[in-house]
Amino acid sequence: MPDILFVKPALPRSGALVLPLAEGFTLTGLAAQADEAVGGAVTRGLEAAGFKGRKGQSCTLWAPGDRNSHISRIVAVGLGAAPDARGAETAGGAALPLVAAEPEVTVATDGLNAALTAAFAFGMRLRGYRFDKYRTKEPAEEKPKLVRLSLATPEPDAARAAHAPLSAIAHGVFLARDLVSEPPNVLFPAEMADRCRALEKLGVTVEVLKPKELQELGFGALLGVAQGSVREARVVVMRWEGGAQDAAPVGLIGKGVTFDTGGISIKPAGGMEDMKFDMAGAAAVIGAMAAIAGRKAKVNAVGLVGLVENMPSGTAQRPGDVVKSLSGQTIEVINTDAEGRLVLADVLTYAQQRFRPRFMVDLATLTGAIIVALGHEHAGLFSNDDTLAQQLQAAGLGVEEKLWRMPLGDAYDKQIKSDIADMKNVGGRPGGSITGAQFIQRFVDTRDGKMAWAHLDIAGTAWATKDHPTVPKGATGFGVRLLDRLVAEHYES
Q1: Which terminus of the chain is less hemmed in, N or C, by CB atoms within 10 Å?
Q2: What InterPro entries does the annotation carry (predicted)?
Q3: What is the chain's pLDDT, residue by residue, as a tens digit (493 residues)?
Q4: 84 carries a ligand binding annotation
Q5: Spatial distance between the Cα atoms of 457 and 445, rounded to a whole number of angstroms
Q6: What architecture does CATH give domain 4-156?
Q7: Long-range Cβ pairs for the range 65-70 (8 Å, 24+)
Q8: Measured between alpha carbons, how far is 327 from 443 in angstroms, rounded to an integer?
Q9: β-pair partners for 82
């Protein structure tokens, strides 16, 4: 995607013109000028197509006007009856692929305020993401040709200011998408930790813990997962200090299994290549920290990610092993493919011991069971705190990263009772995503008062198999916008 420009309204001399139109519209401003310039072809074309400006509607008019007109196409997109930021963003995302083949595109947002103009641009930016660094023979006709994208608005300075924090969020989303898209031979724990260093340019303090230090600290559960791979484990601590000096930080924790074979409990071969995105929870936390720092959020935030590779080998963890976690609790490993919860157990404990955050939210591609339950439309939400759960659900709805709250309870907790250790890492097939959450909850320390905690199982939402308005097929970056919205709406000073 090229840089987005905010300019004063003027009818373009060439390229494509995008018209965002609300339901019941009357052509005014640039839209009316364009209609006049092409001899009323816009009015006639929209009427013939039955375009009413409803959400989800679009209409393309090809080469309107006579041979003296150099506008190659006019694209109308619907904003709905009551345009809002979310609708403008979605319309922008829907418009982008309709004009991506054009070198120059002008969007007539002179009928929208600065906030809606910025939202429309944000939607176009999100949809314009591509991960093509390994394509060496892509046909020229398949490459995007857009080199200049201008939004025509009477308030370019105000729109530019409104877009600035959205641009920071887009950067965080793209960072997460890039990490999830990388192949596992390129992105392994040490490399992923190194890439976190890029956040230092935004003012984030980045600290990387290596195996010797992790061993000394007592990360027995996490290191148990990592011991089968020649790729060494890492834990990365990222701190943003934008709030009051003595204010407790918000705590964001991510599972970062850069490739998951299942270990000794090896997965079937079919589809195993998808396990490169078993680090999507960690990628979301890294992206969220980039977004929070990029827009200079007035909050203290700490992001921690546990990075391992889960491989079968002569040194790999075995079913039946017992490991001691950082919390001191012991875990009987029944299934080495239930490894993410072991990683989170130690990282959650460390986050609490060192930072005692205001709350903790962990994100993980934890279970296939959550996909069986919720498909790819919602991520699973588990929480010990109603207020935090409600805040997360509302934030998710606001950015189209939807959550569905799932139950927790003693009956499920009994399923992970072990005969020889404090707990086992799986509780059988029934309620698999719930027993995974119950396991993680055992590492939420409530000795000094209740620690608000939420677990997001994003296994079904980390990767898209088809295009959506603001999410092209592939890595979604799910969780970045959700966490940023949660912080922005409830936890900034």
Answers
A1: C
A2: Leucine_aapep/pepB, Macro_dom-like, Peptidase_M17_C, Peptidase_M17_leu_NH2_pept, Peptidase_M17_N
A3: 888 999 999 999 889 999 999 999 999 999 999 999 999 999 999 999 999 999 999 999 998 877 667 889 999 999 999 999 999 999 999 999 999 999 999 999 999 999 999 999 999 999 999 999 999 888 887 788 899 999 999 999 999 999 999 999 999 999 999 999 999 999 999 999 999 999 999 999 999 999 999 999 999 999 999 999 999 999 999 999 999 999 999 999 999 999 999 999 999 999 999 999 999 999 999 999 999 999 999 999 999 999 999 999 999 999 999 999 999 999 999 999 999 999 999 999 999 999 999 999 999 999 999 999 999 999 999 999 999 999 999 999 999 999 999 999 999 999 999 999 999 999 999 999 999 999 999 999 866 668 999 999 999 999 999 999 999 999 999 999 999 999 999 999 8
A4: no
A5: 20
A6: 3-Layer(aba) Sandwich (3.40)
A7: 65/37, 65/38, 65/39, 65/41, 66/38, 66/39, 69/37, 69/38, 70/13, 70/14
A8: 7
A9: none
Neighbours of 298 (CB within 10 A): 15
pTM above 0.85, yes or no: yes
Structural contact between residues 350 and 235, judged by C-beta atoms closer than 8 angstroms: yes
Residue linked to tokens 């709406």? 489
Please check if 332 is assigned to a binding site. no
**Dist CA 85 CA 16 (whole Å):** 23
Burial class (CB in 10 A: 0-12, 13-18, 19+), 407: exposed
Residues 433, 223: Cα–Cα separation, whole Å: 23
Q: Tokens for 30, please give them.
A: 């640039």
Domain 168-490 has CATH 3.40.630.10: yes
Rounded Cα–Cα distance for residues 38 and 58 (Å)? 19
Phi, psi (rounded to 5 degrees) for 358? -65, -35
Q: Is 255 annotated as a binding residue?
A: yes
Answer yes or no: are the C-beta atoms of 475 and 177 closer than 8 Å.
Answer: yes
What is the DSSP secondary-structure string of 93-159? Answer: HHHHHHHTT-SEEEEE-TTS-HHHHHHHHHHHHHHT----TT-SS--GGGS----EEEEE-S-HHHH
In single-letter form, the type of residue at position 348 comes to L
> Where along the chain do its domains lie?
4-156, 168-490
Q: Is the dihedral of CA 33, 39, 42, 47 positive or negative?
A: positive
Catalytic residue positions? 267, 341
Whether residue 337 is annotated as binding a ligand: the answer is yes
Quote the tokens at residue 47: 């009427």
| Alpha carbon separation from 111 to 30, 176, 197 (Å, rounded) | 9, 34, 42
CA quadruple 272, 278, 284, 287: dihedral sign: negative
322-324 and 205-209 strand pairing: unpaired
Extended strands (E) in 189-327: 205-209, 234-241, 250-260, 300-310, 322-324
Residue 464, Ramachandran bin (φ over 0: left; ψ between -120 and 50: alpha; else beta): beta
